[in-house]
Amino acid sequence: MDVFEAIHSRRSIRKFEDKAVSEEDIKDILGAAMMAPSAGNAQPWQFVVVDDREKLNAVPDINEYAAMAKNAPLGILVCGDLSLEKYAGYWVQDCSAAIQNLLLATHAKGLGAVWTGIHPIEERVEGFKKLFNLPEQVIPLGFMVIGHPKQEPKRKDRYKEERVHRNSW
After folding, report:
1. Is the domain defined by 3-149 classed in CATH 3.90.1580.10?
2. What is the pLDDT of residues 53-96, one digit of tens each?
3. pTM of the model
4. Cβ(26)–Cβ(95) under 8 Å?
5. In what order do the strands lie in the sheet with 112-117?
6. 45 and 95 in contact (C-beta within 8 Å)?
7. SS3 140
8. Three-state SS string across 119-131, please?
């Protein structure tokens, strides 16, 4: 799949088959995430791979928008590690770039995923920190729910000329 096809055809997937994601696919997806650019090449991310059914079932209690975790075989919690930052505050951008790579790699593997947000909602941040026993300096940004898709969304073109400005507003 070429990069433009991947970008234009990737969609948030919320329905999954009852089928495990292979360790090879998980490693490839995380490897792609770790290729993201980061401020000062600090790479301030940490990843928690979640395939424990009890933990996946507990996720919607913290974030109602992640209800599909109860029916997915895998989740990946993407976190910023403040102790790895080179430039304070850029961890959100760095980890967001890693998430986008992760989502595209997941799609390229024929898998589906949805990005469910955590930061900056303090109750969610604290809930995920507690559920996954995160160290103080590690802040959860998003929880990716991943699996073999049980739906086939269509490709869309979202280009909007009115949102493009050249040289000034």
Report:
1. no
2. 999 999 999 999 999 999 999 999 999 999 999 999 999 999 99
3. 0.96
4. no
5. 45-50, 74-81, 138-147, 112-117
6. yes
7. strand
8. CCCHHHHHHHHHH
